[in-house]
Design brief:
The complex is a heterodimer. Chain A is 49% helix and 16% strand. Chain A is α/β, with parallel strands linked by helices. In chain A, the strands form 3 sheets. A 7-stranded mixed sheet of chain A has the order 7-6-8-9-10-13-14, with helices on one face. A 5-stranded parallel sheet of chain A has the order 2-1-3-4-5, sandwiched between helices. Chain A is elongated. Chain B has one domain (17-228). Chain B has helices at 2-32, 39-56, 59-63, 65-92, 100-122, 148-170, 172-182, 184-189, 194-220, 227-242, 247-267, 273-287, 295-300; strands at residues 127-128, 138-141, 144-147, 222-223. Classes of the chains: A alpha/beta, B mainly alpha.
Chain lengths: 379, 301
Amino acid sequence: MRRTIYLTLAAAIGAALAAPWGAAAALAQEGPVKIGLMGPITGQWASEGQDMLNVVQILADELNASGGINGRKVEIVVGDDGGNPKTATLAAQRLISEGVSAVVGTYGSSVTAAVQDIYDEAGVVQVATGSTSIALSEKGLKLFFRTCPRDDEQGRFLAATVKDLGFKRAAIVHDNTSYAKGLADETRAIFRDSGVEEAFFDAITPGDRDYTATITKIRAADPDVIVFTGYYPEAGLILRQKREMNWDVPMIGGDATNNVALVEGAGEEAAAGYYFVSPPGPGDIKGEKARRLLEAFRIRYDALPSSVWAVLAGDAFGVIAEGMKAAGTDGPAIAEYLHSGLQGYEGLTGPISFNEKGDRIGDVYSLYQVDAAGRFVLK
Amino acid sequence: MDFFIQQFCNGLTTGGIYALIALGYTMVYGVMKLINFAHGELFTLGAFLGYLLLVTLGLAGAVGPALGLALSIVTVSGLVAAAGHLLERVAYRPLRNSDRLAAVVSALGASIFLQNAIMIVWGSQYRAYSARLLPAVSLDVLGQPIPLIRILVFAAAAALMLLLWLFINRTRTGLAIRAAAIDQGAARLMGIDVSRVIAVVFVIGPALGGLAGLMAGLLYGQINFNMGQLYGLKAFTAAIIGGIGNIQGAMIGGLLLGLLESLGAAYVSVAWKDAITFVVLIMILVVRPTGLLPERVAEKL
């Protein structure tokens, strides 16, 4: 007898708990479409995360003003990953329980690596915006995409650029970090196939300030260009010391040297003429769509986004909205559409299509050169 | 041959800076038998004070490069010496009669404190000395163009070392320092104020380290809050190689380290430069465990 009472009670409680959930689920069909934004809103990369949010919010407002997705409004649900993998897993779980079916973000590769599987298991599409590590799209996750380039694409672009600029004998210098060594190896392999001679290949120690011994040695190898794949502090020192030694050989670097501190460290005279390849800065993106977004951003926030990664978050939002228009709000259906249905979608940073791994097809990199006043000029 | 001369000059400049920092380690060790781990941070402090004077306050622009440089040399050495003196009062003097390990831990703590204090004040990003502070002229040395700034830095380092040598060997205070280095107790019995000797050592060592920081800033143009870590380690090694506690040894050790690095990079491999350098240094220590010029030789001088 007592047992029956308990069972009845349990059933009653269960029903009471289930009722509002059922009602909420029914309402969600009518209410707004929820799209997640995971970004480093706080922490060391906070400026990136806040720009991401601002760009996506502008685009969402525009979309809602012009009718939303198939007549339903879009609501952006923010998950702050703090630039930290541990915080990110909590943020991801929260976004999933809020009922999003697709997520824009995030910025750091290590952060994306920590949440990829969580989204995949929950059937949520993730479109990363600044995570360039190669491994992320090599896991075979069907729901993972990214609008940013992969690290190995940079090597291809760098090697092709050196050849296009007409250089024939390259000295390759890296700094033994996994990023710089990977880029150097990639570039070196392509040089072998494309007929650019390798005059020198070696690694400097970051943090050493005196690179004159290395520069003297490179000079003895007589290259017509130095390819430096490391970071901006060392690039600045090499440029400055190279100039002090009255050696005017051209130098070209990767996107880790895309920082104005390079010019400060080297001095304008020494930095002038330095080339680097990098995704374009926000102010250099061509096309009407990007121009309108940046104008709206300037009006609302009185500045430009500080880097291209926030604009790529706008592209991630764009492809998700496009996928939802075509395939509804079911995660796997959106992913299916992005893989095969979406071809040459006109994004902010150019046409967007995805390959079977979820990587973006096509060039994102551009060539820059430092001018006499120390400005970075798109070539 | 041209290549060798170039690389030799490259090595001498780096070595000169290592030697100046190494002097600070070796002087403190000679008198107190303590490795002052915060010495690398005093070097960083010198670089940042130079940045404050020459770049933030624009001293060189206001009074001309030569006078600006002279003023900053005086100010930086004075301020870093004051910081070194304060360091000794706060971190080492209270522990003078305690276990040696306690003093070492205190030194490590002071190092971490100073590094983070510099980071909080000046930020964690790289700072740059303008390339226009000094004219970019090269002089001809044995048929090789050597930048003027490198020659000036090496000459200044050599002059400072000569002054120090004269001070230690030709003055009464220098005599007191040498006496305290041999035996503190006996020196005290002879009427030498050992506390004062230690205070003097903690003024000269940091002043030299701070000037080395200013020179590194002028030479390389780029400074950041943890630059003292690597330089401190290299200079400490130089002091050990020369025979820690021995002033001439620190000079020789510093120059040797600089030359080994640049010639190792030149003739073997750039990436393996540090490995080559340290293999040679280990071999030196295997043959002469107390360094090239051990302390005892100095005592007899």
